[in-house]
Amino acid sequence: MSKFIYADNAATTSLSPAAFEAMKPYFSEFYGNASSLYKLGGQSQKAVDNARAVIAECINAPKPNNIFFVSGGSEADNWALKGAAELGERKNKKHIISSKFEHHAILHTLEYLEKHGFEITLLDVHENGIVSPEELDKAIREDTALVTIMFANNEIGTVQPIKELAQIAHKHNVLFHTDAVQAVGNIPVDVQDLDVDMLSMSSHKFHGPKGMGALYVKKGIRLPNLIHGGAQERGLRAGTENTPGIVGMSVALKEAVEKIPEKNARLEKMRDRLIESLLKIDRSRINGDRIHRLPGNVNMCFEGIEGESLLLMLDLNGICASSGSACTSGSLDPSHVLLSIGLPHEIAHGSLRLTFGDENTEEDIDYIIKTIPPIVERLRSMSPLWEKIVKENS
Ligand SMILES: *Cc1c(COP(=O)(O)O)cnc(C)c1O
Asked: What is the pTM of this model?
């Protein structure tokens, strides 16, 4: 494949070479089942234990056994929500609070729970893409079993006041979960300081292998089984451990967390330069709060064009970007996230998400700044919608 600029790090990331190297022996020499009693299995068990301790340390979890390995962010979210729902149901609490712009792993799980008799309140996220702690306080009821609010949004990158939100939930004795898939490895995450009860993460969003994730569960929360079977993951999530995946995830996370200060200073500069430059395009806008957002996230709308056509043109010019989340591509509906911050359908259609990571350079930004404006101009010159906008405003 010829050279291209990868600007879709919120969808997935490349595998860290160090993580890849660390995984290799567990595919070949050390293939033993971590649960077996001979030395070969013992080596796998040691690797799993070590990885659990490393991951716990990266998010400042008190103990390695607060970390449960799962197959990814979606599974962690499903377990946290269905598990908390079951715990709530035992006390006759059947109300759950979340927000309008969660990932589908949350929203669709909530729809499922709604079909099973739960009542769901989705909080507004306002034009800045941020949940208001006061509104959460007002929404909590006697029968609220769980509050789940994402840490950082995967489309517009806005970062939520998680510590405050968790405090409010706890004031009312309600469990608090956060989908931190976009936060872990990208910004500092300290589960004790935030005082969250459960937190989801996904390995492939921080240069670890795909198909791996973890759920942090605070001590004292007795989450029901996710998968019935063997005694793995303290008997709660059965199935032979994915030793190479677990090792790769831990190496990638440690590396990502160590790089955060240096990387983020660089990314913020690149992000702000790109935003300034793209905002010079007529009838363009930035989506989500300018300050409380992930260092590598740029999400813009250009009126009068279709996001999809823009993406195809960018691809032809060697730029990998996205118009929302990978999960909604293939559908013609505008992003639920952009609608949640109040954008009208026709504007939400012309959105572009560029998400940068460790491998991106200032040269990438130069190239993108040079490439996008003529493409927008060309697409607008062919767009009846743009013609209408120009007429209406002349
Ligand atoms: C990617 C993502 C998920 C899903 O994670 P997988 O590991 O792909 O299942 C969940 N939530 C958010 C916010 C994400 O960005």
From this structure: 0.96
